[in-house]
Amino acid sequence: MLGGGSGERLCTPSTSAGPFRIFSVAGFQNRANDIVYCPPIVRQQAQHVPEDSTAIIYFGGDVQDFPESMETNRDSRGYMKYNLENSAILLREAFPRSHIIVIRPVRMEFKTFSCFDNFVRGNNAGVPDHTPMNHALQHLEKLLQNLSQRLISIPENEILDQAAQAAAAAAAVAAAAAAAALTLSNATVNAESNSQSSPGNDSSQDMDIDILQVQENVTVDADGAVIFPIVGSDAAELVNNVTGNNGNSHQEQVNNHQEQANNQAQNAAAIKMASTTTTSNNIEHQNNDCSTGQTRQASVVSASPAATTSGATATVTSDSNPLWWRENLNLDKSKLVLIGFSKGCVVLNQFIYEFHYLKTLTPDDSSMCRLLSRISDMYWLDGGHGGQKNTWITSRSLLETLTRMAGMNIHVHLTPYQVQDDRRPWIRKEEKLFTEMLRRLNAPITRHLHYDNQPANLMTHFEVLQAFCQHVHALNQQVQQHQQQQQQIQQQQGVGGGGINDQSASTNNGSNSILEASEEAK
């Protein structure tokens, strides 16, 4: 089971919130990228305009692709849990109030090497050739604009029908797994009773139902039409993953999965009711009037289980429109959080080059000022590529420009796989220069080394994604606890309800700025 030995599931299936595949989203000039999108699962109470929302932009690493592509590649198959769609779900659980946008590389050479040519030039292995200006920021802005239009144009009933199908499929798979687990449980108990085997020889594992077998997708072609995937039965594969330590643990697991199946079935029925009450495909229905809203009361679906267990204590706000996330959707006007993992960090590095170009070499060009001012955080997650230099930016002039970006927080998350590999010592040296120079320049930067007590290997490299998300959860919990304590103090001091409401509103906004959360926790 993945997760750095934490024993926690990588992610849990959703029943109503994506991920959606949007193919060939147009960007700058003739460039286009496929995108995996997940809407927020928690609605911010104070969100009225696009500027109040946050979009998480993720650039993945080598190997990461659509699950069906990874399945056909021998080298990629072992990392299926970190496909682009699962990564989107994982990020959604860490940022439940944000739009999740995973940008697929324009090329996957040999189904292995991620090549982000639309953002940064590179060779056949995706090794970057950074230039002062490759219009990467313009491409990102255009992608966000056109993605917003594409999402709004999808007819509501098609999204709701797809969600209902996915929830029903998930419920069926969970029910089949529960039934199979019960059968295996009885057989295991009998076998153990007959053989009287010692617990030390028990090779069983915790039940782990792979999200790939039950997750739902909405695939949209270039014309905006939804393509429904064929739902196959993976119950047999699930059965192979279902084992336990004893009869009691099996029964508990069976009960849990039976309850999950029942809940998913109820959600499927609720979503299906909503889809059947939709009377028109007109895209103007995204701004539901009162009568349409009343017909969709039954379609309100709670957040995925992960939303209540991942550290975000806020619950989904009831709303008559299950597609509330499309209201006033204008992603290029949202606050932006940029995340690069492994090879994906080359895109963030190219952005730094273009920050410098726009701020220093063409200071009179204000065309990109709006986009730059909306970038609040940049995350480098275990950056690396196949070249022997320029894994991290070490130019003082470029980093000085990055430091002068008002309101931009910088975060570095690492594993021994990249920074303790003696075969690639330049990565360690460059990262040290990057971090130390930014600190000397008084940049708002945080640095975390994960799994430093474990052997450096490719699996822990991928697991930095989960470690990063768990770090986000922990910070959010600390902030929420601090704010709850402040509320209690105010209540004891007889402060009126207005101050408490202000604290509650700040709690809703807290998840979107992790650096602020860290400072608040201190």
UniProtKB/TrEMBL annotation:
One GO location term (cellular component): mitochondrion
Biased composition (Low complexity): 250-268, 298-318
Taxonomic superkingdom: Eukaryota
InterPro entries, A to Z: C2orf69_mit (IPR018881)
Region (Disordered) location: 244-268, 281-318, 486-522
Matching Pfam families: C2orf69
Bias-annotated ranges (Polar residues): 281-297, 501-515
Name used for this protein in its record: Uncharacterized protein, isoform B
Gene for this chain: Dana\GF18110
